[in-house]
Each structure stands twice: as structure tokens, then as C-alpha cells.
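Newbie here. four chains, one complex. Structure please?
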Amino acid sequence: MNNTIERICKIYGYLAVQEQSGADFISSKELAEAIGTTEYTVRKDFSVLDIKGYTRKGYEVKSLKEKLGVKFRLNKERRACIVGLGRLGTALLDYEHFQNDGFEIIAGFDSSINKIERIQTKIDVFPVGALAEVVSSRGIELGIITVPAKAAQEIADVLIRAGVKGILNFSPVKLNVPKDIVRLDMDFTNALRFIAAKFVIQNK
Amino acid sequence: MNNTIERICKIYGYLAVQEQSGADFISSKELAEAIGTTEYTVRKDFSVLDIKGYTRKGYEVKSLKEKLGVKFRLNKERRACIVGLGRLGTALLDYEHFQNDGFEIIAGFDSSINKIERIQTKIDVFPVGALAEVVSSRGIELGIITVPAKAAQEIADVLIRAGVKGILNFSPVKLNVPKDIVRLDMDFTNALRFIAAKFVIQNK
DNA sequence: GCGTGTGAATAGTTTCACAGCC
DNA sequence: GGCTGTGAAACTATTCACACGC
């Protein structure tokens, strides 16, 4: 079911683009190509979600996006914060795509007061001590962790206690989180390992 | 089988840490907890790979790492380059974990000469025009793409023609690559979408 | 007893085949 | 003819059960 969610998220992104460019209908085949799967799988996903298309035309772009948005609440604007304002953290603070796609980074945190004072960004930045208070008072639902490995679990704990629903983890450690909290790891080293290993296996 | 590769990559990373801290043996249970799976799955993976442990002791850390390293060629140092030296690209240029774990970023590329001249890093930086030549002459096997969406496919094509084996793609577009080339997408917006959507589904 | 090794059972996912519809 | 919708088939992955070894 994770695979379905992942595909739907990609489809949703693709539909946003198609909607801009004025497309009315789209086939399962085109969607499949756009996200890298098969048309069967796309239709099966929609079938499970009870989403209907039109014979010979495909799916209506606007209403498909609308339905997926409602079912997965991708239509709702969500607030996020970034903890750890090193190079990666500051790069993400100003990552323009978030803003366009329903996510708003509304706060950054770092343990170094110096760094906080030096940072140039439109987004509010705070010392980590303010984390719990800011997260709950501003209704932040998603935490992005870009702190060094040894601080990551502690930050995750604070974020969760303050009420975030999910964590995007860029630190290379496996975080322990309660199972109602969603955690997604983006470990760059592992990503390169995966690419290298897969190349070896598939071309053997 | 992708799942197995992914788990092995995580295990390999965990073993590197364990090796440093001097651990001799490790059980399938501990490995499973470390990477977020079950002990059955870990043992099954090893079984398929024909890797043996010791009754009542588990697996010998050093030799397990060695064996995985050989089978998936994770023991080989691999060279990578980064194309697109915006905030994310420059953050990755100096991402310290790569260096420790068998990957070496040996070149950066950008289309702006200005940017190239201003960048402060120990790593060699070049105009994109030099991409094909540098990649093939220096034996770069992995390309990391951090250019804007509209330039991503073109860069991917050049990288592939120059001989890279895999691409780590940070741009939010789906790249077309021949099927012997490994591509891995890290789309941050999609990651947040996935977290939000999964939370909605699992807590419904 | 404790932890591995693995065939068998189960669960989950993708693909296929084809009926239905405009 | 072209594209959807979906049950069935095929495939893949995980979990279980238990024999084995120290």
C-alpha cells in the first residue's frame, strides 16, 4: 500500500503540472509513463480507490486531482519546519518547490545563536530551545531534520512531543518513532550505495 | 529484489559503524532493529546470498561486511560528480558522509561561470561544457543532478553518454534513462507529500 | 537455551485478459 | 478502435515453523 501512496503522490504532482498547461483528460498510459510504472498498475490503483475514468478519454485532470487531493488530503496546506541550519538545512529553507506544492516551511531552528543571527532568509529562525513552543503554537505538522547524526534522535523526540505528524530525516541514523508517526529517511550515502549496488546486480 | 538491495545497503552502513566500535558478532535481530525490518527477513536475505552465521553467536561483523562488500561491490571506492551548484548542489559538495563511506565527489559543474568562480570548496569545479570530458577522463561513475527541472534531462543525457552508471536525481522531474543505467529520485516535495498522505491513510 | 538456515505458508503486488462502453 | 474496470493468474516478498548446532 506504500507503493500505491507513493505512486499517487507522484501522479498528484504530475497532475498539478498538467492542470497548469490546460490539459483536460489524461490516460492511464500517460500517467504511467510520467511516473514510471505500467498502465495496469495505475488503473488498479484507481480501481481500489474507486476513482472512475471515461471510456476512450481517460481521466478528467481537474476532477482526478481533486479526488486524490481529498482522499489523501493533499489539498490541504501543511506547515513544516527545518531543524539544523547547516548547509543542507539552509538550502532547504529556500527550496522553492515546497511553496508551490502545498507545503510551507514556516520556521527554522538551530542550536547556534551565531548561525541564527547570520542567516539571511525570509523565514523565521529560532534557537532549538524554542522548538516545542513554536511547533505547537504555529501548528507545524511536519519536521525536517538536518542536524548532525548524534543530535537527530533527541530532536525527533522533541518534534514528536510537540505534535508533528511526520518527520523527513536527512540524518544518516535510523530514528525511533512511535508507529502512528510517519518517518521517511533520505540518506544520501545509502542512495549512492543503492545505485552502485543495483548496477552491479542488474548488469551481472 | 530491490528491497533486498536496499536492506543490504543499510546493513552495510550499520556494519561500518559497528566495526568502528569494535563489535565482533551481531545477530539477525540486532541488524533487523537497526535497519527497521524483521529478523526473518534479514536471515532470508543472507540465505539467498549464501552468507552463513554462527549458531548462538550471529554473524561475524568483519567478515559479513567483507562479504557484502564483495557481492555488491560496496568495497570499491566510487567517484561521483555534482551537476548544478545552487544551494543544494554546493551543500552536497561538502557533505562529509560521502567521503567516509566509499564515495568521493571529485567534481562539480555549473552553467554559470560567475558561480564557479565564487564557489569556495576544495573540490574542482568546471563549466558544464566540460562535463563529458571530465566525467570520462576521470572515471566518474555516478552523477548527482541538482540543476533546475528544465535542464535535468539534458544533463542526464550528457552524463550517460559520458559513461556514468547511475544517477541520483534531485530535480523534480522524471528522467528517461536507458534501462541498464540506475536512476534514483530524491524529490523533496514528493517526500513531504508521501509523509502527509501516509499519515492520513494510516490514522484513518 | 539461543540464534541460525530454510522449505512451506501466507500475504501483498503487479500483470494479464478480457468484458464493457463510447 | 481505443481506453477503462476488474477478477483471476502470476509473481514477489514476508512471515512462520521448526530442524540444526553449539
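Moderator note: Chain B touches chain A through 62 residues (CB under 8 Å). The two ends of chain B are 31 Å apart (CA to CA). Thread marked as resolved.
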